[in-house]
Amino acid sequence: MKSILLVDDEVKLLRILKSSIEKKGYRVHTAASGREAQIKMLENDIGVVILDLMLPDVPGLKLLQEFISLYPRRVYIIMTAYGNIESAVTAMKAGAFDYIVKPAKLDEILVVIEKAFEWIGMREENLELKKTIESLESKGSIISTSPAMQRIIRLIERIATTDATVLLQGESGTGKSMIARLIHDLSHRSKKPFVFINCAAIPEQLLESELFGYEKGAFTGAISTRPGKFEAAHGGTIFLDEIGELAPSLQAKLLQVTQEKSFMRVGSNTVIHTDVRIVSATNRNLKKMVEEGLFREDLYYRLNVVDMYIPPLRERKEDIPVLVEQFLNKHRRKNNKNYRISRELMKILTEYHWPGNVRELENAIERAIVLCREEQLSIDDFPREIIEHKLGPHPSRPEGSAPDTKKALPNQLEEFEKQLIVQALAESGGQAAPAARKLGISRQSLLYKMNKYQLSTCEKRE
Q: Please, are residues 365 and 345 in contact by the beta-carbon 8 Å criterion?
C-alpha cells in the first residue's frame, strides 16, 4: 500500500488530513514533532513525506536535509505558510519534490500526492529499464523486449553462422543496417570486412564502378585501376541498402555475383572470383516490383533466401521505453549528466506514431538533450510534431464562430476554461508553472483543474 507520513505540529489538522487521505486508499502515519517523525521514518516503510517547515523542536529544513541523506529514495513534499515561500524554494533546491502553501484545499493536496507516487512509479520503472538494458547490452543483443523483435533476434542467431543471402524489409529507420551488422558480427566472417553501400545514394552511372571497380582508362577520369566494394568485402559481408533502387542493367550483373560468385570490373574482360555474403535491405515492396516488371524475379529469389520483415516502431510500442533509456544512457555517459524523463512524458512518446521509426526517436531524444535545462527533459524540448500530437492544434475558437447555445451555461464555461488551460499549456510547452502564471492562478489550482479535466503535463522540476 502507498504509505505517507504527515509531519505537522497542528494535531487537529493532522487528524483531519489523515482521515481524508486514508479514504483515498493511502496508509497514513502522523507525527507532531521532528523527533516523532524520525521514529516513524525508522519504523515504517514510508513512500511520501509531507513535512511542515515550522516544527516545535527542530527546523523543518534541517529535518528535510537529514531525511534526504538517510532516506534518499523517499519523496518529500513541503508545507509552508503563504508568507514563507522563500523557505519552500530553498527546500526545493535541497531536494524536495514539491511544496504546498497553507491553507491548502484537500483536492490540491491529493493532486500533489498523486503526482509524487507517479514519480516514484516512474523511478522504479526506470531502474527496471536500466537493468533490462544492461542485460541486453551485456549479451551484445539488439535492445528490444517486443515479441516481434525477439523472434527476429532468434532468427538472426540461427542464420548468422550460414552463408545464406538475407533480405531485410521494412520502413526507413527501423534498424535494418544495425541488423545487417549484427548478422555479420555473429558469423564466422566477423573478422573480415563489413562493407556498406547505399544503392540510392550513388548515381546510376557511378554505381556499377562503385560496386565492381574499374580498369584504368575505362572511362574519362579513370586514371588508375580501382577495386570495387565486392573486392573490398572479400571473405566478409556486403550490405546493399535500398536494393529496390538498383537499375535493371545492374540487377543482371548482381545476379551473376549471387549465382557464380564472380564479376568483371568496368572496362575489363577478366573474371574476378569473390567469397562474399550478401545482405540486402529495402523499404519498398520487392514482390510487387517483380509483378510490375521493375525488379528481376530471379534476382529477387536469389536475394530472398532468408526474408526478415522489421516491424515499424508503432507496431512494437513496448520497445519505446527501452530505446529511450538506451539513448539517454548514451548521452549520460557522453555528457556526465543524469538525464531524466517523467512517466507522463514517456507515455506521450509511447503514444506517438513515430513515422521515422527508431531513427526519428533517437534524433528526438538528442534534440531534447541539447535543449533541456539541467537534466530533466520536458515535452517542450521535443520536435513540434510530438508536442502537437499531445496537445493538439491551437485550441482558440475560430474568429466569428458562435458558442453552442444548446449546452447549459455551466457546461459552456467549463469547456471554455478547459480550452484556455490547454492553450496556456501549449504556449508553455506543457509546463504547469508558466501556464499558471499566464492564466493568473496558482500552480496548485492549475494542477487541480488539470486533474478535473483529465489533462496532463510534463514539467521540469528545477
A: no
Question: Would you call 409 exposed, middle or buried from its count of C-beta atoms within 10 A (0-12, 13-18, 19+)?
Answer: exposed
- In what order do the strands lie in the sheet containing 237-241? 194-198, 237-241, 277-282, 166-169, 306-309
Chain segment 65-74, per-residue pLDDT in tens: 899 889 988 8
Grid cell for residue 249 = 542493367
405-426 per-position pLDDT tens digit = 555 666 667 777 787 888 777 7
Residues of the chain with pLDDT under 70: 1, 82-85, 126, 129-141, 390-412, 429, 454, 456-462
pTM above 0.85, yes or no: no
Multiple choice CATH, 312-391, 3.40.50.720, 3.30.1330.10, 1.20.120.1810, 1.10.8.60: 1.10.8.60
Cα three-residue angle 9-15-19, rounded to 5 degrees = 145
Q: Of 3.40.50.300, 3.40.640.10, 3.30.470.10, 3.30.360.10, which CATH number belongs to 149-310?
A: 3.40.50.300
Contact by Cβ (8 Å): 170, 283: yes
Q: Rounded distance, CA 49 to CA 42, Å?
A: 13
The answer to whether 266 and 208 have CB atoms below 8 angstroms apart is yes
